[in-house]
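Thread amino acids onto this structure.
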């Protein structure tokens, strides 16, 4: 077999990490969650997100000479566990499968780094994480709080996951944050409902009035010593840089601003990184998938810093 033929038979993995279910030496693991509820009236496609992100991750180089001159894939013994086996739109069976897959990673001691999928996939992830981290808090970076009310016949959606997380007491809402909130909603009083559940909210307008440094100082002060589930919805970025998302909302972060924010979280006890809502059918030149892959890379760097694996090569 030629070298070229050999390459074409290998599964596409995130940043070339080994495709494996052996977590015995892994300090972090990639998990794809190719799921969406299938109930959006006209914008379905985030079930294709994991494959697109993997394909674009070939553009993400492992060394940042200025800020992170080490290879996080190697330092973490990163493995790509592939995708959860599920059927999109089959909500409750899919949630059970996602929780089971997360359980396996979390119980091994590895930090899960996941890619969705619509925002609903965060709920089964939090269910798995809460078993190991009963005092967990959420840092949800998004343009929406995803704290909608729901009716029994439509209990789960990509707008209710943090409502369920509060009701199921999966996280300490009093110390959990929604950051970057902006734009229009389908229902009134969403902000009041979010705050009634105990969450802290920093809207995009508040974020820029206060400034990046002040917001980061608060997050570090309030979240220090707590296990942090970092949920990054790609629609927190402006559609000009991330057009291929489930619910694009104008007035979001530039790529530089979002990267600066996630880099500023170094020092927090990040126990999971969840990057979601990339919708390839709505993307332009794979911009959103590539940026999502880069945010996952930054998540890997955060995990290296947490574990003390961030010394530059040669030191």
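Threaded sequence (315 positions):
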């Amino acid at each position: 077999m030629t070298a070229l033929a050999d390459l074409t038979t290998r599964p596409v993995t995130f940043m070339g990490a080994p495709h494996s279910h052996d977590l015995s030496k892994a300090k972090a693991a990639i998990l794809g969650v190719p799921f969406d509820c299938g109930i959006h009236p006209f914008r379905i496609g985030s079930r294709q997100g994991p494959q697109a992100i993997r394909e674009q991750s070939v553009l993400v180089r492992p060394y940042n000479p200025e800020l992170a001159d080490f290879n996080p894939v190697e330092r973490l013994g990163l493995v790509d566990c592939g995708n959860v086996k599920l059927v999109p739109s089959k909500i409750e069976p899919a949630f059970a499968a996602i929780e089971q897959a997360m359980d396996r990673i979390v119980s091994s001691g590895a930090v899960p780094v996941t890619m969705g999928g619509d925002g609903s996939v965060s709920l089964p992830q939090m269910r798995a994480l809460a078993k190991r981290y009963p005092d967990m808090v959420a840092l949800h970076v998004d343009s929406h709080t995803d704290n909608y009310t729901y009716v029994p016949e439509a209990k789960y959606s990509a707008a209710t996951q943090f409502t369920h997380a509060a009701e199921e007491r999966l996280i300490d809402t009093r110390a959990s944050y929604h950051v970057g909130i902006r734009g229009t909603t389908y229902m009134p009083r969403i902000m009041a409902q979010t705050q009634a559940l105990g969450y802290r909210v920093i809207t995009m307008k508040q974020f820029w009035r206060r400034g990046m440094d002040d917001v980061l100082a608060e997050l570090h002060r309030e979240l220090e010593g707590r296990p942090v589930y970092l949920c990054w919805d790609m629609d927190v970025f402006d559609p000009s840089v991330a057009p291929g998302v489930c619910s694009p909302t104008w007035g979001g972060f530039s790529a530089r601003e979002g990267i600066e924010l996630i880099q500023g979280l170094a020092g927090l006890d990040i126990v999971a990184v969840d990057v979601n809502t990339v919708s390839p059918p709505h993307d332009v030149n794979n911009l959103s998938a590539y940026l999502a892959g880069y945010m996952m890379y930054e998540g890997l760097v955060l995990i290296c810093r947490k574990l003390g694996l961030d010394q530059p090569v040669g030191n």
